[in-house]
Amino acid sequence: MNRKLVTAKKLKIGIAAAFMIFGSTSAFAQQQVSLQEAIKQALQNKAEAKKAALQIKKAEYKIAEARAGALPQINITSGLTYNPVIQESLLEFGGERIIAKLGQPWQTTTTAQVQQAIFDQRVFTGLKAAKSTREFYVLNAQLTNEQLIENVATAYYQVFVQEENLETVNQSYANTEKVRNVIKSLVDNGLAKKIDLDRTNVQLTNIGSNKQTLINSVELSKNSLKFYMGIPIETDIVLEEKSIEPKPELLASNVDLNNRSEVKVLQKNRELLVYNKKATEAYLYPTVNLVANYGWGATGAKFPLTNGLQNGVLWSDFSAIGLNINIPIFTGGATKSKIAQAQIDIDDLDLDIENTELQLSLDHKNAITNMENSLINIESMKNNVGLAEKVQKDTQANYQYGLATLTEVLDTENALTQAKQNYANALLDYKQAEIKLIKAKGELNTLQNP
């Protein structure tokens, strides 16, 4: 018997140890996430951010490619030719006609050529455009990062508010459960009606259903956040506990639309289109290139690579240095048409810039309006929660003294839950308005800092 007790005791200790191990593993598997950490991981992990970084790297190679046009171009060509049939020609010398073969069966040549652009407007314009292309991709990467920050911040506070709503429902469930237990005790002692107990159980079931819905909503919101963070969906995350504090001071500052990444990207794109037009105009300019070559070759009746002059194969070298000047005179109007098309692209983008600035100005105005309304709504909902709490406590006290009905108790509990959820939703509306306003001011990067 004692042995069984010892065995049972060891089994309990083993089970407890196992729970401790699994509990510890679960705790370590959780990842506590602040807004700044969520943004950091998104910028490190998301494909959009990585692709934007690759475009910047690609632009570096474009600069190197454009720079190559201004550097000497060196190439070596080599060839070996066998002529099985050599063309004959009729020649006249001093009144006599001679039939002679022009060439030899074998011919080989190896030539090295160096070409240096002395003046080529297209090369110089291309180099400037390549540098602007890199700047364009840097700005585009910044815009991509801002879009990621906005998505992460919105998803983060969506989870935050959903968890606040879940906590509210949990409190309501606990309060209603206490009321149900008291009524059950009264019913068991014949001091209350069973219908009151049934009504309370119905209320508890409804709250439980709402609770399950919110649990699912929290899970879905977390999945969205994890997606924007670029981390595996199965990762268990816990939000860092922080309260939402309104910042009315954000309304006081002005905005400079030229600081918006959207405008900067369009302006840099316009700069690229101007370079494209200049590159097209460069086809009207002359080009000057210095060309130098040096070669070594042989001709003869036998295979030249293994024979010399004694076997009828002549080896000799040759060289030439020249200056090539190309002056375009008439292209049938093709270049002029291309220049006109390039100008239309610039004019079209100017309209996009103008429209974007108007849209951004509207977004800023709307963001301020939404922010002001959200601040008013938060204060109203906060006061409403305080009033609902007072009514709920007074009603519960009156019920204990028989001065209030069960229906009134349940109604006040529902009203308190609804008031708290309305307050949480008002906070979410505020944070969304705040994010929009920060974006309208071109300051989304400030969300990366605590």
UniProtKB/TrEMBL annotation:
> Organism's domain of life?
Bacteria
Q: Does the keyword Kinase apply?
A: no
Originating species: Chryseobacterium kimseyorum
Keyword Transmembrane found: yes
- InterPro entries for this protein: OMP_efflux, TolC-like
Membrane-spanning intervals of the chain: none
What family is it from?
A: Belongs to the outer membrane factor (OMF) (TC 1.B.17) family.
Q: How is this protein named in the record? A: TolC family protein
Coiled-coil residue windows: 32-60
Keyword annotations from UniProtKB, A to Z: Cell outer membrane, Coiled coil, Membrane, Signal, Transmembrane, Transmembrane beta strand, Transport
